[in-house]
Write a structure and sequence with these properties.
mainly alpha
Length: 411
């Protein structure tokens, strides 16, 4: 019985997606006809496919023939959507709600397609509708992926504003009622009293984290870009062998080097300080060097030749000529390094012992240990810590995507 229920679920969801894309494409067709007054002018390159030439257009001999659609046909689609919404509110099994909603959308779509689209017999209109159908399916897939990835964050923010008894209710309460804004002041109060030393409402943790993030960004961008420039633009004995050895270090698990690195930092007397968390960034990293090297390789040699003719040294060529050309890669690397340093938990756990040196991710673990059963306060703290990363990516996503997609492209 369980297998049949799962089968009906899969078929119902797949059918609802197929019907939803079909229905949305018809809505686009109806709205286009409504707001353009029924006119649809084909581009100069459009030609009717074999067997699809409109009988009316062929009879009239007018290549700019238009068709009109009564706005009443849109009411059919609207009515089908209303019936589908009502079906989703029926007190029946959820799988049958999906089937009824899909049937309602399918019925309305078929009526519109047969009465308004197919009867028009306009090859231009049908061609545009087929393009709309492809776009509708593509956007449905993108919206589904967006909903899947955004659901955990939305649930986290929603839970931070709920009462404690609403957290595990079934069905889940996605929109809290009432909204409990006082959960956030309670979270700051705990952060202030969490440690023997004053944390200034958690600003001490934030300051330590920002110190590590800032120094890590400067060290990674500076050292990795210099090493990448050397591997990509300079010629010296053993260059390729050293580069392959650097890439080989990416295959070494971090657990293998954890104890030796700890012993080195203990010998240096850096335990219980912030130095072990940001000093290694000034020695570069295999991935960051590889990423920037690919960008340096993609730059034209004429830039370097012109700088050499003008008397520029290697450092001047690197700093003033080539480095500004790889700003997309630097932006992408900066975002990756920021997220890694911001969310680093293992480093503070190994090297930090004093309360005044704790970072935000470690403080969040302490918060979870003290308030593991209070999910609303835990989600408040998680929301406060996640929000800066989301804001950063929201404003820098263009540079990040550009830096990743252009890697390795030679021009």
């Amino acid at each position: 019985m369980q297998r049949w229920i799962a089968f009906f679920w899969l078929v119902g969801i797949a059918g609802l997606y197929a019907i939803g894309g079909f229905w949305l494409s018809l809505v686009c067709d109806g709205l286009r006809r409504l707001f353009t007054g029924g006119k649809l002018i084909a581009s100069a390159g459009d030609r009717p496919s074999r067997g699809s030439v409109s009988r009316r257009s062929a009879g009239a001999g007018d290549p700019e023939a238009t068709r009109t659609t009564s706005p009443a046909w849109l009411l059919v689609l609207i009515a089908s959507a209303a019936v589908a919404a009502l079906a989703c509110r029926l007190h029946i099994a959820p799988v049958w709600r999906i089937w009824l909603a899909g049937a309602a959308l399918a019925a309305g779509g078929l009526v519109y397609w047969a009465g308004a689209l197919r009867s028009a017999d306009d090859w231009r209109r049908i061609k545009v509708w087929r393009a709309d159908r492809k776009q509708a399916y593509l956007h449905l897939a993108l919206l589904t992926g967006t909903a899947i990835f955004a659901a955990p964050f939305f649930w986290m923010v929603s839970t931070s504003l709920k009462l404690e008894k609403q957290v595990f209710t079934n069905p889940p309460v996605w929109i809290p009622h009432p909204v409990i804004w006082s959960n956030y002041p309670r979270t700051f109060l705990f952060l202030e009293k969490a440690l023997p030393v004053g944390t200034y409402d958690g600003l001490l943790f934030l300051g330590n984290t920002l110190t590590i993030v800032s120094l890590s960004l400067v060290g990674t961008l500076l050292s990795s870009s210099m090493v990448a420039y050397s591997f990509a633009r300079l010629r010296w004995p053993g260059r390729d062998l050293c580069f392959y050895a650097l890439l080989a270090t990416m295959m070494i698990p971090g657990a293998v080097t954890m104890i030796p690195v700890f012993l080195i930092f203990r010998w240096l007397g850096w335990i219980d300080t912030l130095r072990p968390l940001w000093v290694p960034a000034f020695f570069g990293g295999a991935f960051s060097v590889f990423l920037l090297r690919q960008f340096f390789l993609g730059l034209p040699n004429e830039l370097e030749d012109a700088a050499r003719i003008d008397g520029c040294s290697y450092w001047t060529t690197y700093w003033r000529i080539l480095l500004p050309q790889i700003r997309p890669a630097l932006a992408a690397l900066a975002i990756l390094q920021f997220m890694g340093a911001w969310n680093d938990f293992m480093g503070p756990l190994i090297y930090i012992t004093s309360p005044q040196h704790l970072t935000g991710s470690y403080a969040l673990q302490l918060f979870q240990s003290a308030h593991g059963g209070e999910w609303t306060l835990l989600m408040c703290a998680a929301t406060l810590w996640t929000l800066p990363v989301i804001i950063l990516f929201f404003f820098t996503q263009r540079q990040f995507i550009e830096g990743i997609t252009l890697t390795g492209i030679k021009g």
